[in-house]
Specification:
Elements lengths: L1 H25 L13 E5 L4 H12 L3 E6 L2 H8 L5 E6 L5 H9 L5 E6 L17 H17 L3 E8 L25 H25 L5 E5 L15 H13 L4 H4 L1 H8 L7 E4 L9 E3 L9 H15 L13
Parallel strand pairs: 1-2, 1-4, 2-3, 4-5, 5-6, 6-7
Antiparallel strand pairs: 7-8
């Protein structure tokens, strides 16, 4: 009787394990990336974390990938670890002159731009052009880069946002004081910049559609991924909790890059937002996810676009035509 019971239990366990493995194997991963041979991609912030994981996956699938990095020496060291066709070019998103120089040096088609670079929860600082560092780097730098490169882009733009765009307190764009002068808080500034990423994607897609362009604007977020991004937090308690979370909760950088890669290669509608499918979108396989009401407001998206053009001096260009896609 006991032996029979053990056999039944073992059978149930075996069936459950097989079902679990079947489910896991059906989840989207890097092996599902279609052949990228003949395609060129630019990944910003590519020398570590989500960036290098994105580069590895795209180059591994056959793409030629440009690591756009602030420190070329670190970029070269990272590129040396990647199997596939890669190169390194200097880009400092906190300096609009550097952004313009990078774009001016681009020739030929660019199939994919991944706006991945970012800073998070840092002490109050300013970009070379005088903008609050998180808003200036995470949003304005990528805004300028995208528009300057857009005449070359033939497929899509993927901008990495964050679940922080809907943090408690209902983050919003502080149009009257984008630099948060006198009320700066690292998390408030970060949340604003990540909300701006989603509004940028929304308005970029509207403009692309209106122009009849085949290019698609996408957004993604990694959930909780263990990278060095959290290591610059000014709050000791938050920094300590982040380290613990990175160790016990977070997924690694390769898993964290999956939503970006999914948005980059899957046939999705423009303005799609991709994140992990697990609890609270902290980890899991990539899937389409929701965004806050503030991130879905077309009027705010248009207003932010106008302000961003004024601040950067960069405007929406004539995008690549369908014939070159």
């Amino acid at each position: 009787m006991i032996t029979a019971y053990i056999v039944v239990v073992d059978s149930i366990v075996d069936i459950a394990y097989i079902a679990l493995m079947a489910t896991a194997s059906s989840k989207w991963n890097v092996t599902d990336i279609p052949d990228q041979t003949g395609r060129t991609a630019v990944v910003t912030g590519a020398n570590s974390g989500l960036g290098i994981a994105t580069v590895e996956a795209l180059a591994g699938a056959g793409a030629h990938v440009v690591l756009a990095v602030r420190d070329p020496k670190r970029g070269e060291a990272a590129a040396a670890t990647v199997r596939g066709s890669v190169e390194v070019r200097r880009l400092d998103l906190a300096d609009l002159a550097s952004v313009r120089e990078f774009a001016a040096g681009w020739h030929g088609d660019l199939h994919l731009l991944v706006n991945n670079a970012g800073v998070m929860n840092i002490p109050q600082a300013a970009t070379k052009d005088g903008f609050e560092m998180q808003f200036g780097t995470n949003h304005l730098g990528h805004f300028a880069l995208t528009n300057l490169l857009l005449p070359h882009i033939t497929d899509r733009v993927v901008t990495v946002s964050s679940g922080a765009h809907k943090m408690p307190g209902s983050p919003y764009i502080h149009f009257d004081d984008l630099d948060l002068t006198g009320e700066y808080a690292p998390m408030k500034a970060y949340s604003q910049s990540k909300l701006a990423n989603l509004l940028f994607t929304l308005e970029l897609q509207r403009r692309l559609t209106e122009a009849g362009s085949p290019v698609r604007a996408m957004a993604a977020h990694p959930g909780w991924a263990a990278t060095n991004l959290q290591g610059h937090d000014t709050n000791v308690i938050r920094r300590t909790l982040a380290r613990m979370g990175n160790r016990f909760i977070a997924q690694d950088n390769r898993a964290g890059a999956l939503p970006t890669l999914y948005a980059a290669v899957q046939d999705l509608p423009g303005a799609s937002y991709v994140g992990p499918d697990g609890l609270a979108e902290m980890r899991g396989a990539p899937t389409l996810v929701g965004r806050s009401a503030a991130a879905s407001d077309p009027a705010t998206a248009r207003r932010l676009w106008t302000v961003s053009e004024e601040l950067t001096g960069v405007t929406f260009p004539e995008p690549a035509t369908a014939a070159s896609a």
